[in-house]
Specification:
alpha+beta; 4-stranded antiparallel beta sheet; 1 helix; globular
C-alpha cells in the first residue's frame, strides 16, 4: 500500500511540474529612462521598468512617430544596446553599461538588454 501511495505522489508531482509554467524570462532589474517629444511638443520622460533581457524592445512612444527618443539613462543591472531603428534593426548605435547616462544628442527607437 505504501509503494502505491509513493508512486501516486511521485506521478502527481511530475504531472504538476509539467503543467505549471516555467520561471519567467530573465529581466534586467531597474529602470531604463529616456526622453521623448510629446504631442504638445514638450520633452517628456519615458521609462522601461525591469525590462526583459534578450528581447528587442521598441520604445513605445516612438512607434508611429517621426521623432525618436533621446537621452537614454541605463539604471538597470544589465548592459543596454540601443538602436536608432525600430526592431533593433540596422547598426548598433550605442551600448550603455549599467548606470551609464548619455546626453540629449543620442537618439534611439529600440533597445535590447543583456
Amino acid at each position: 500500500m505504501r509503494l502505491r501511495n509513493t508512486v501516486a505522489a511521485a506521478l502527481g508531482a511530475l504531472l504538476l511540474s509539467a503543467v505549471l509554467p516555467t520561471s519567467p524570462a530573465s529581466a534586467a532589474t531597474g529602470d531604463f529612462v529616456y526622453t521623448y517629444v510629446g504631442l504638445n511638443g514638450l520633452n517628456l520622460r519615458g521609462e522601461l521598468s525591469n525590462p526583459d533581457s534578450g528581447q528587442c524592445i521598441n520604445i513605445p512612444e516612438t512607434v508611429g512617430s517621426a521623432l525618436p527618443a533621446l537621452a537614454p539613462r541605463n539604471y538597470t543591472t544589465s548592459t543596454a544596446t540601443v538602436f536608432l531603428e525600430a526592431d533593433c534593426d540596422g547598426d548598433v548605435f550605442r551600448t550603455l553599461a549599467p548606470g551609464q547616462r548619455l546626453g540629449n544628442s543620442l537618439r534611439l527607437r529600440s533597445v535590447v538588454f543583456s
